[in-house]
Amino acid sequence: MTKRFIKTLLLGTTIASFMLSGCGNSSEAAPAEASVEEAAPTEEVVEEEEDTSAIQLDGYNLLWHDEFDGDKLNDKIWTREVREVGWTNNELQAYVDSEENAFVKDGTLVLKALDSGDGTYTSGKVNSQNKADFQYGKVVVSAKTPKGKGLWPAIWMMPQDEEHYGQWPKCGEIDIMEVLGDDVTKAYQTIHYGAPHAEQQGTYVISNALKDGTFATKFHEYSVEWEPGEIRFYTDDHLVLTVNDWFSAVEGEDDKPYPAPFDQPFFVQMNLAVGGDWPGDPDENTDFENAEFAIDYVRVYQKDSYDMNVEKPKKEYRAPDETGNYINNGDFATELDKAADWTFYQASGGKGEATVSNGELIITTEEEGTEDYSVQIFQADIPQVKGHKYRVTFDMKADEARKAIVCVSAPTAGWVRYLPDTEFDVSTEMETYIFEYEMTEKDDNNGRLEFNLGHRGSTATIHIANVRLEEIE
């Protein structure tokens, strides 16, 4: 924090009051009863009230902040967290209490990853748990991310008492920012909750039109506005995600009263991970000389008051079409519209193309990839209601006999399967396939019908027609 001090020569009396740093608290001292003649001159350092006018926000009070203007980490706010290799997400780094991995320099906090040379790494992680916990508010962080495969910086929040609703993900998690080092044009902002584990995520991609437009070339601002019943995420003042529908429960039991789990004190933490399930391991091009996550400031604000009388929004399920079909453009009468119907997806080495012709969706594959979903076509936002039964039907053929997988998944509810991943044979003649299932999980407004064509030992072209997903008695 930025502080200013003045030296005051006291002659016979003491200053009656002085301001303390942080949170605007004050302390009063009783005046000394001494005359000028009786008291020897003394010198006392008195802390002057910090000028925070430049960082105030309309409608908010500044609760606490750190501008990292000093020469060392402020241990009144932050703790260097210590964790062993592989503590979570199969990450490769150990978090250590070291000035080499977490230090303040030139007005920034630097979290630095170091290569140990034996396939493991050390890195920095700081948190404000039990020092600057708060419930509801706005968090604003300015940061610059590192670039390189396997580097994974994050700014996130966890509850002060993780056991209040149960261990992760039941306790809840608020991710203000995550950027993967191999794509520093995209920032992720997410909440996690459950069980079963559910998440809602937004992404912000920097426009290619911006000069040096990456999160690694300059500082960008990430923020969250956390209120009872609603959480809003921003990147550089762009609204990225608004969420108001979540839950906390022990699997198989009723939900805790809304807005649990996001109705308890949380704390801020920041770290630079190396490797792990999401970003993958570093490669020979990862530059650990510059593997630094730089944070310019952290500012936490609160409103004067919050309305605690919130109710969980009622789910509104979209209706099927007049024939009972929940699938949009299932007859492929029009070109694919990612915003309204089908999305063609490629990952993990998969490469192909999806086109529409004569009422058929035609998927050509150049590379099958290493995962089932490496070549995938899906449609999301399909209502799924617990206890209801559904039927999936479609016509399909291939240019050469091969295999494919169909399922109905839950991308925002832990990727559980309402219709399990089902492999089936595809012949060179158009055939009709029928799959029925009962929805046994929590109601979900975002079921997803998937056809997974990767990693099946074939790149034969697929033709799909007449896709339906309907409710049955």
> Residue-averaged pLDDT, rounded?
89
Classify the oligomer: single chain
Low-confidence stretches: 1-43
Rg is 28 Å
The computed structural class is mainly beta
Number of strands: 32
- Number of alpha- plus pi-helical segments: 0
How big a fraction of the residues is strand?
A: over 45%
Please give the largest β-sheet: 8 strands, antiparallel
Shape: globular
Written account of the structure:
The protein has 473 residues and is mainly beta. It is 0% helix and 45% strand. It contains no helices and 32 strands. The chain has strands at residues 4-10, 17-19, 26-28, 42-48, 61-66, 79-80, 93-95, 102-105, 108-112, 114-115, 121-123, 125-127, 137-144, 151-159, 173-178, 186-193, 198-205, 220-227, 230-235, 238-243, 266-274, 292-302, 342-346, 350-357, 360-368, 375-384, 389-398, 402-409, 417-426, 431-438, 444-452, 462-472. The strands form seven sheets. Strands 5, 8, 9, 13, 18, 19, 20 and 22 form an eight-stranded antiparallel β-sheet that branches. Mean pLDDT is 89; it is low at 1-43.
For this entry, give a set of tags.
single chain, 473 residues, mainly beta, eight-stranded antiparallel sheet, 0% helix, 45% strand, disordered N terminus
SSE blueprint:
Layout (H helix, E strand, L loop, with lengths): L3 E7 L6 E3 L6 E3 L13 E7 L12 E6 L12 E2 L12 E3 L6 E4 L2 E5 L1 E2 L5 E3 L1 E3 L9 E8 L6 E9 L13 E6 L7 E8 L4 E8 L14 E8 L2 E6 L2 E6 L22 E9 L17 E11 L39 E5 L3 E8 L2 E9 L6 E10 L4 E10 L3 E8 L7 E10 L4 E8 L5 E9 L9 E11 L1
Parallel strand pairs: 7-11
Antiparallel strand pairs: 1-4, 2-3, 5-22, 6-12, 8-9, 9-22, 10-11, 12-21, 13-18, 13-22, 14-15, 14-21, 15-16, 16-17, 18-19, 19-20, 23-26, 24-25, 25-32, 26-31, 27-30, 27-32, 28-29, 28-31
